[in-house]
Amino acid sequence: QVQLVESGGGLVQAGGSLRLSCAASGRTFKRHMGWFRQAPGKEREFVANIRWGDGSTKYADSVKGRFTISRDSAKNMMYLQMNSLKPEDTAVYYCAAGVNLGKYDDWGQGTQVTVSS
Q1: For strand 111-116 and strand 10-13, is the pairing parallel, antiparallel, or unpaired?
Q2: C-alpha–C-alpha distance, residues 117 and 26, integer Å
Q3: What DSSP designation does 2 have?
Q4: Mind listing the pLDDT tens digit for each residue in 1-17?
């Protein structure tokens, strides 16, 4: 099992930036990691993911060009740089890790991001 701890959430005005971090520990082998978010009254949705080996990335259309996912393999850290934030980005953001592509086995506790208009 991988333990995941998110940090970096907070309150920011529209147009601002935040950088989320996810620290991984425990069974650290993972094939991919990702960020998801859940807004009040809505289902959890995919934001971005990264393959741990080659660093290839994918993004949801709603965040393309504004968010950047990255990882530091040596530190077992994953990041989400969020720029040009919009009120609709308000949600609890979760990091997740998986061994098999397309499946996430471990989840963090989430960090709240609130974007005011």
Answers
A1: parallel
A2: 39
A3: E
A4: 789 999 999 999 999 99
